[in-house]
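User: Round two. Same drill as before: sequence, then structure, for each protein.

Assistant: Same drill it is. First protein:
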Amino acid sequence: MTRKEFEAKHSQAEKLLPGIEKMLKSKKIKLSDISGIEVANISREETGFTALRIGVVTANALGYALGVPVAGETKKNKKQKKPLEFDIVEPIYNKEPNIGKPVH
């Protein structure tokens, strides 16, 4: 089991997969060794809407491609006890998205 948090302002999509690849190589883990993926899918105060979606979509895509379960947190802020068969993990954004609002 390994864990990595990424901070990449305004370039999450460009840095996430290379960061995952680097982490796996440093731990000598092959993609075929992965048996499940857990993703933080509930926004925290500092989490942006786009960053949350990018992380969740990446976890879902990797899980689907590798044929492994993906687990997130439930809406009650409790982690799933056991990942189910492949199921889509949804991002849970706890505040109004600030998308398309004019900047003044």
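Second protein:
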Amino acid sequence: MVMATVLGLSALWQVPARRALAGRGAYASIGLAPPKYRVHSDVALSEERTVTLILYYVAFMIGGDFAAYFLGLLVEYEWGTNVSLIVFLALYFFSLWVAWMLAVWVTTPRGATSSA
């Protein structure tokens, strides 16, 4: 305890400051207003668009994975495992790129214009 007092760390073990915040709710202890008083900003809307983008990407990616798998399976029946591996990997990585492009295209706000 003496070492903590010398270093100025004795305040870490004191809890009176938390008691003062107890009447203002759980959000006050971390410096936030209660949810009903928060205002949605552009950052919140941007985060919502980001989550939507990720969800669309995952959905398109799963569809592309199934397509790559079944086309690779078809190629395996016709030409063998070596060719099937090459076809599957090529289609898999191509489907990841296509899934990203589709997800960006679907989630782009309609009022946005291209800067290029």
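The chain has a mean pLDDT of 76.

User: Perfect.
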